[in-house]
Amino acid sequence: MKMIYLNQAKFKEIQGKIDTVIIPIGTIEAHGEHLPLGTDVLIPEGLVERIEVKMGDRVLIAPTVNYGHVWTLAAYPGSVNISTEILTKYIYEIGKSLIDAGFTNIVLLNGHGGNIPAITTAGEMLADYGGQVITFNWWIDFREEILEICEGQGHAGEDETSAVLAVAEPYCDMSLAKANNKKLIANIKRKNIGKISYEHALSGDATKASREKGERILERVAERMMEILEEVWKDNIVE
Ligand SMILES: [Zn+2]
User: Fold this and answer.
1) How far is the CA of 152 from the centre of ligand 1 (A)?
2) Which of 32, 91, 140, 151 has its CA 20 to 30 A from that of 178?
3) What is the pLDDT of residues 21-50, one digit of tens each?
4) Going from the N-terminus, what domains does the chain have, and what CATH number goes with each?
5) Whether the Cβ atoms of residue 164 and residue 172 lie closer than 8 Å to each other
6) pLDDT, tens only, 58-75
7) Stretch 187-213: mean pLDDT
8) Ligand 1 midpoint to CA 128 (Å)
9) Per-residue DSSP letters for 156-210?
10) Cα-flanking dihedrals φ and ψ of residue 61, to 5°?
C-alpha cells in the first residue's frame, strides 16, 4: 500500500492493522556517464514495486527520501549533498511520526552507500524511541545472491547498471558505459578523492550489465527481503 496515494480515511483504516512501513532512501548523484542521477532512488523504488505486488496488503510503503549524503562523488555534475547530521535527523523524524501513527516495524531500504552512517544512527535512535528497525543495504546484504547473477559489483557497475536497466531503460545510455577497476590502496579521505578513485563517477564494469540481469537482481533481492520480513513478523530474528 503506497502512502502517497492514501487519503486520511484510508490511512486510518490501516492504522493498527498494518504494523510495518518501508521507507526507501536514495540520493541524487552522478552514476557513471551512462546512468541517471536518480539511480539510487530508482532501484529501491523498483524493489518496493515488487514487494507491493506480493505483500502490498501487509506493508505500508512510505514516500521515498530522494536526497542523501554525497561526499565522495560531490565533485561530479548533478550530485546534491545533504550532511549526515541533517539526514540522520530527517530520517529519524520521519520514522518517529510513523511510529507515533502505530507502525512499530520501520524498514529503512537504502540505495546509497553514503547514507549508511545516517541510517545507522537514525535506526538506533528510532529503536530507542520504541520502534523495531530493519535496515537493508540491498547491494551489501544480498551480495551473495547478486554475485550469482553478475560477475561483479560497483558504483554504476554491472549490478547497479543492470538494476537501473530493469526499471528505467529509456534513461540509460549504454553507449557511454565504461569499466573502471581502479581502487584506492586504503580508505583515504581527501577533497575530490572521487575524481581519482571513481573515474567517470564509476567503479566496476558497466559494459557487462543487461536488463535481464537487472530483472533477476530485483526479483531475487525483493524475494529475500520479503523472506526476512516474514521471519521478523514471527520474531525469528536469529539464525
Ligand atoms: Zn548508486
Assistant:
1) 14
2) 140
3) 999 999 999 999 999 999 999 999 999 999
4) 3-225 (3.40.50.10310)
5) yes
6) 999 999 999 999 999 999
7) 95
8) 29
9) TSHHHHHHHHHHHGGG--GGG--EE----SS----TTTHHHHSGGG--EEGGG--
10) -105, 115
Task: Taking residues 178-182, report their average pLDDT.
Answer: 95
- Provide CB contacts within 8 A for 235, sequence distance 6+: none
pLDDT tens by residue, 107-141:
999 999 999 999 999 999 999 999 999 999 999 99
Mean pLDDT of 225-238: 97
Calculate mean pLDDT across residues 167-193: 95
State percent of the chain over pLDDT 90: 100
Cα–Cα distance between 61 and 204 in angstroms, integer?
Answer: 31
H helix intervals, the chain: 8-14, 39-55, 84-100, 116-129, 138-141, 143-146, 158-168, 194-197, 211-233
Q: What is the mean pLDDT of the chain?
A: 97
| Ligand 1 mean position, distance from CA 119 (Å) | 16
Length, in residues, of the chain: 239
Query: CB within 5 A of ion ligand 1: which residues?
Result: 39-40
